[in-house]
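Attaching the record inline, Q. Sequence:
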Amino acid sequence: MNGNTAGTNGPSLTVPTASLALGTHTIAVVVTGQCGSATNSATLTVDDSPPVAVCQDITVQLDATGHVNITPAQIDNGSNDACGIASLSLSKTNFDCTNIGTNQVTLTMTDNNGNTQTCTATVTVLDAVAPTITINDVSVTEGNSGTTTAVFTVTLSHPSCQTVTVNYATADGTATLADNDYQSASGTITFNPGQTNATITVLVNGDNKFEPDETFAVNLSDPVNAGLADSQGIGTILADDPQPTIAINDVSVVEGNSGTTNAVFTVSLSNPSYQTITLNYATGNNTATLDSDDHCAGEWRHQVRIKRELLRPAFRCGQRHLRRCSRPGHHPQR
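Structure, as predicted:
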């Protein structure tokens, strides 16, 4: 180190003119002014050692979006420099699904004089917590013919870096396969990495049967790389058919000269019903009368029971109290 004097009209500063070895030194500093000079001492450290970068390995986990960021402070493990650290930087700070496993990163330390030093660390990236699976409920109007689609949506709580699968199958509720209310469906749903939604389609059969709203289920099972948060979707078939009405037809028969002839009347429902339907019936006089023995006497009063589908009950003469039978009407007096 060479001596140096500063100042021309004012105080001047003089330091020793000598080369200093590496290490710490105490030097005399002389300040000279118009009123004289003053001497003081100072400590001077001479250091030519480079910065020291120290790294540590870390483990991080992806968040629900499939990403994670790290900072130089997480990798730094006591880097130092005699002249002071100006900055720390990393070769990579952002990680995603493509980085699951081990990754090498470089930490660069720069001191206040622009000197740099580096070290290397391993960043182990773990996949996010496994997502959970849910399925929604669906309502569809039945329709009178053909099929209507009930579309269920299956959802992951967040994307996964892995392929997720889950099985599904329909199951009877008040709507049944036996009653032809809907069509069976089953299979496996696959979510590719990053995908969060998939659909299941179930066909609902239309008819004109009077019935209440009915339900069936879609059950999820055996998930892979995910958990089940809601494993059952309920499908509601909204009925749109009216309560049936009842009608009876007119009949003509040839009387004949002897014996009896059956007059068969058909009682019909306008559309089927899920309920058992009953009604009473009885003959009555018109131009044919009981007194003229035109039709059966005896047991003409009965109850008609109609079950679920359109029936065609046949009304036939009783035999216990009759001499002959022709066209139906009121009961004759015995």
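The two ends are 151 Å apart (CA to CA). Confidence is low (pLDDT under 50) at residues 297-334.

More tomorrow.
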